[in-house]
User: Fold this.
Amino acid sequence: MDNRTWIGFVSGLVAVSAAAGIAVSCMDQPPTKCQTGRGVFAAKYRAVSEGDGGCLLKGEPIGIQPYNPANADKTAPDIESSSVAIRSTQTGQALTNRAPDLAEGHQPYALGKFAKADPGADDFCDVPSFEPSIQELEGKPEGDAGPDGAPGTPAVPAVSLKYEWKNVRFYVTAAQAGVQMIGDLTYTKNGCQAEYKVTALYPSTSCASDNDSGPKVPDQEKCLPPDLDKGRRGSAINSDVDTVCDPDLLLCVLARDPPSNH
Amino acid sequence: MQPVIAAAPRSFRRENHRQHREERRARALRQLLRWCLATLLLLVATVPPRTALAQLGAGVLIGNVTDASSKEPVADAVVTVTSPGMQGEQTVVTDSSGLYRIPTLPPGVYVVRIDKETYKPYTRDAIAMRADTTLRLNAELLPESLKGDEVTVVARPPTIDVGSSSTGMSMSQEFTRRIPLSRPGSKGAGNRSFESIAEAAPGAAEDRFGVSVNGTTSPENQYVLDGTSVNNPAYGVVGAPLSVEFTKEVNVITGGYMPEYGRATGATMNVVTKSGSNEFHGGVFAFYSPGGLEGKRKPIIRDGQAVLTTQDLSYIGDIGADIGGPIVKDKLWFYAGFDISRTRYNLHRTLNRLRYNNVDPVTGVPLPGATPIKDPATGFTIADEIPGAGSSYVAEGQQIQAIGKLTYALNPDNQLALSVIGTPSTAGGGDKYAIDPNTGLPELDPRLTTGLNGSFGALAHRLDSSAIDTSLKWSSAFDNKRILIDTTLGWHHQTSATLPADGSEPGAKTGLAGVPRVVWRRTAFHSITDFETFPNSNLCDLVPGVPTMDNPNPPPSVPCPVSTYNSGGPDFLRRSTLDRYQARSVLTVLLQGAGHHVVKSGVDVELDTYRNIKAYSGTFRLRESTSGSNFAYQRGFGFLTGPDQAVVLDKIDNTTKSITAGAFVQDSWSVVDKFTVNVGVRYDAQFLYSSRGGTPFSLPNQWSPRIGAIFDPTQEGRAKISAAFARFYEGVPLDIADRSLSRENSISGLQRTGAACPIAGLPSTTPGPCLGQPREANIPPIIADPNQKYTAGGAGSVPIDPNIKPQSSDEIVVGGEYEIIRDGRVGVSYTKRWMNYVIEDMSRDEAATYFLGNPGYGISKDFPKAVRNYDGLTFYFSKAFADEWLASASYTLSYLRGNYPGLYRPETGQLDPNINSDFDLITLMANRTGPLPGDQTHSMKIFGSKDWILAEQHNLTSGLGLRARSGAPTSYLGSHPRYGVDEAFIVPRGDGPRLPWNFSADFQLGYRFLVDKDKTVVATLDVFNLFNFQGVSGTDQRYTNTDVLPVLGGKVNPDGTIDGIKHPDGTDFVATEKNPNFGHETSYQPPRIFRFGLRTTF
Assistant:
């Protein structure tokens, strides 16, 4: 082997490595599949039609969980298919002191399927339709007074709650794996119906001021990310998300429709 | 990511801070004095040893040949080197400038002969070539015409590596056999693995999983055995702990190395095994360390409780033999060896009853209202052993090592070597506990854990581990050895298993693998009688309280309390199979042009695969709540297909793989003979595949520039000044692909405690979790959550930062070296290391969801950057074995700060490279920056050996090892609701008092009988820790067992308290929640131990 041969060998090697380097440098990482934050979102309800006005909601914390079916041999979840369930705080509260409604087709959560396994070009994952959340709960009469004259448990009224979700979309990127949501909600309580455009942010974070006396007021600082140098523990909300402290809910909500980013 | 196995809480002790600190200081002072005295005495008798600075594989011999009278260069002189350790000889001729270079010399002692017509032959012997060094031997030839004059050659053999700026230590057999190394009881000591001796290198220190250097952690090292990487492909720790009996040279390269070494951010440990040669050589050896001669262990004083465990060594021993020689002389050689080792400890478990202040004088039974007595000196509750209730166990582990090697010389320029190395080991099983191969100590070592606080079936394991390494190396040379090609094919095959003691498989429904672990930890302590029946158990009857006005229903006192008890099955189990297929080819070309060049370029490809079957025994772990009202399904594999619709998995069976491809080019350029420039670059790309396949996790663009300059002011190889810069990239172990990329689907929940739900095997009066009933709703309920009974983790896909960068660190090394005596050199080096990007998993929502990224960058920009800054200044002296003595001494002053310890977590022992819990929890990010656990400012090591000739055939040999090290920092740790104990830094890391200095003095005495020139019989006695120093090596850093938040801007008050501690729910911490044992000693130095050795060689 003469000098030219080895120079050829070395340059070839360097060229191949460089080419390989460049080729793989634009290689993608595994995609972030359609998914949602796991837990309670702060949902802001904007009325589209207010019905008779008797069931107006400005928003509430809603619980959202993603699921995957089992694969063929039931040894692992099949991540190429996923679904999502939404349960509202109102439904949860109604169930704390009433027997659940177990009727066929009645469930305390709405359940829908992601249309595709991967986010679209706009980084959104669509859940076009849901089985509604329906709970028709019977009330309870007032409890008997105690032997010492103590008052019995107060009467619990019957309640009927129905949440119909559709056109729900989650913003899914590696940085924000389904923490921003938008969708349409038809809400019916005891026959009163209202329609809302809903935006929601995970995790639900209180921005009520710390004052011990007087009414709580919005404190936007509580929506900000941690800044340990300034002694701020901060929220668990992704720092890319543009939030406002909602004065009605005293929760950190999306500043605008998703993607609500800085 | 959350650790799989939560550390068991240690026992409580009452605080007695200042007194202990003072005692420790006084003790340290006494030890320092004794140690200094020992040092002085012994330095007079023997002296300091041989170190070596080196790079990988072969050494290089260079030099100029000149005419002694005219001082002109002599061209075409024939330079021949021979060695007993080399097959055949190597020959080159000098070029027109009189320069020669022999680039492929295995480590060994060489004779050089230079011949040229019209000159007298020149020979020089005793040239000690260390692995990967460049030595310069200049020669002046005497013209034959120079008649009559007698000329004496006064040149000394060279010892300074003038071709490289790397730091470290090369350990030959002379060193490893003459110095007391590999203390019995330490990791790998059973058969004296190459890793166990590596801590002798300057800047190196033992850590939990091996030996680490320059502020890094041991899984960051690259372990290379005969050119093949033998790291455990899943965890990065050593995968083939070969005994030094079979190694020719162990080269610990701590820094400043060239691009031919890569994929490591720690040290490179390059091991060259022995080969056969034209003469038959071999030996038989046996070593034995009896436990009966162990020095007295300082007892660890604990608060009185029912279960107390002590252990003592029974024995550590091994026996083996090796032989090498020719099959066909000058053509085919063989080498073979084996070694069998066994380690056994005795574990003693006693049951105890607290001593009470008010007892019936006749029966000894405590009277109602009696309270336990505390020892006024320690503040600990006193307990007395219950007669007849104790039990003893054995913890045992054994390993077999075997090596076979064939070397074949096709012709003088082509050589093939095939080696197969097997290192199978088993530990525990049947009625024995296991020796943990990661620590060399019994599992549940009472110094590290609460000991045997449970049933045998729940605590004991069988640990199997085995590796087979096969490598085929082809070396060829062309053009008067100016062009060399070395090609290596390697296969590392490893299996390991953590099984129940009965050997049942992970995921099995029968045997102990089918029984769930139950962890009992009520704060109103259980009595041992809730779990065990034993003679005299009536001594544990509850002591009733006496009602008072304030407290009409006082709870009874528990005389035999257990703070934590484990029943049921053995919890986490696994069986894994790991393979690495590696191909490596390196071209070396010697060139001239503006000086001399050694150009190397190479390609290196490896495929790693990892099949890991993991399971929790009985599919889940149940943990009692502190109130005792319910049990959490704390761990268990499974996933949810819909709201509260669970699929429970018996096991998870993942097969993951990684492909790494790399290439490098480097030039070692002697600009003029005084000056060498090493410059090169390495490129690597790694791709990790989850068990589902698909798009890999890609870590391309690992460009590692390396540059170094070496200046020899003497021009004769007697001194050097060097500087180097290097970037190192991490080869990411497959654990991240198994646990994070493939996901580890888990479900948890709650089960209530029921009086009618006893557990099989426990007394029927003990209420247990009602496993037959539906799970309970979560406490506290999250009313909006679609899941009311289950919490799911790890499902779906893990988000990965699309712009994630591979993990790397940078290093600057500057140093100088000077040969002060024959074969001896002094030197100084300064090393600075820092991290660039670090790969970790993180979570913003308290571990509900994780993602992968670089903390502080990209999608993780709101997390703190990972920092680890190391500065180290080392002074050393080293003398190779010659004139019957060798020596090596070093002192390192170092500084290590940051928030990133490395690939494992020293505080908890979690070994999950790149997915440790360091950056998992945003609520725990505060206070993590400070002195890291490896920050031990001063470290001094002195090794020496001297032979004493008694008579013609009778020698005495002596060796010593002296070590002194200042103490590590300590911290104030708290618990996290999900991650458990020791995860929160309540005040900044390292704000606790430093541990005291530790000293040790080890000696070897030997008698060597020389049967004839090649046959010897040697009997040795090693004594480790001769003075039985019992310095404190660990204190309890757990400030509290309760869940707390880090205190922002928090500091420790002079009285040891901390203001402003809050629970995660915002409520205030109360003083009674402090761990009474905080700050107290939890471990001492290992005691004195003897090792007897007998070796015959021929």
Remarks:
- Chain A touches chain B through 74 residues (CB under 8 Å).
- Helices of chain A lie at 3-25, 89-96.
- Residues 3-25 of chain A form the longest helix (23 residues).
- Chain A is about 10% helix and 35% strand.
